[in-house]
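Researcher: We are triaging several targets before committing to wet-lab work. For this one, the compound of interest is S-adenosylmethionine. I'm pasting the protein sequence and the ligand SMILES. What I need is the predicted three-dimensional arrangement of the protein with the ligand bound, expressed as C-alpha cells, so it can go straight into our comparison scripts without reformatting.
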Amino acid sequence: MAIEPKQVLYNALAGFTPVRNQLRRIRDRSRPPDYAGIVNYTLKRLQVRREFIGDDGIRGASLLEIGSGQEFGLGLLLVAFGARRVVNVEIEPYGFISDPALYRLLVEKARAEGLEIRWPPAGLQVSSNGRSVRPDPEKIVLHLGCSAETIPEPDCSFDATFSVAVLEHIRGGAMPRVAREPYRLTRPGGAGYHRVDLVDHYTRAVDPLRFLRYSPRQYDLMFGNRGSSLNRMRMDDHVKRTKAAKVRYQFNSMPSRTALPREDTTPPEDG
Ligand SMILES: C[S@@+](CC[C@H](N)C(=O)[O-])C[C@H]1O[C@@H](n2cnc3c(N)ncnc32)[C@H](O)[C@@H]1O
C-alpha cells in the first residue's frame, strides 16, 4: 500500500510532545469538558467490567486496571459496587480532572441507575475549601504518567488485573514487560481479564484490517507516534505472550494470525 503524506505529517507533529501538549491545552481552553459525556461513558465502562469480570469478581476484590485513562470515576463506581481497592495505571500524565462537579454528577447519575452511592462517595476526598477532589489512597490509587511495564505495587497484591482496549496500543518493545507485570502482581489463584480490539481503529467499518497491509516501516512513519498507534499483534500473538506470563486472560473474538497474509502480520520485536 502507498504511504499517505498527510498521515506522515500528522505523525511527525505527534512526535513532538510539546506540540502535542500545546494542542491539547488549546483544545481544552476552547471547549469546556463535557461532564455529561464523561459520566455516561464511565457508567458504560462499569457495565463492560461487570459483564467481563463478573459481579462476584469485583465484590471484595483488590483490582488493578491497566490503561485506565486519567480520571478516577470508574474507580469510585467499582468501590461503590464493593471492590476493596482499585489501582489505576495510565501512561499519559495529562488530563486529570479534580473538579467536584464531575464526580457529583457521576454520583447523581449512578444513583439514578440504582447503584448504592451517595456524596461524598467512599474513595473520594474533598479539599478543605471544597473546590477540588482527589482519590482516597486507602481505596483508589491513580498512577498517572506510569507505564504498565513497571507498576509500583507489591507482588501478589491483586485478586484480578484487567484492561479494556489497551493491549493493542502497547508499544512493541514494551509488550514483554507489560505482559509479565500482571503475573507478578496477581495473587496465586487470581485472574487477568484483557479485552483487546484487534481491528484498524481508523477504518474499522469500511476496511477493518487495512493497517495490516502496511509494512512495519510504512505503519511507523504514518502512525507510530500517535496515541492511537497499534502494535498490530494478532490474537495468537497475545495468547503466546500471556501464556508465558501464566496469567488467565480472556479475549474478545477477533481474527487470528493464521487467517491473515503472513507478510502483513509482523509482530513487534521483543524489547
Ligand atoms: C483506548 S484507551 C482505553 C482507555 C480505557 N481503558 C477505556 O476503556 O476507556 C487506551 C489507554 O491505554 C493507555 N496506555 C497505552 N500504553 C500504555 C502503557 N504502556 N501503560 C499504561 N497505559 C497505557 C493510553 O494512554 C490510553 O489511555
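Researcher: Any quick observations?
Model: DSSP finds nine helices and seven strands in the chain.
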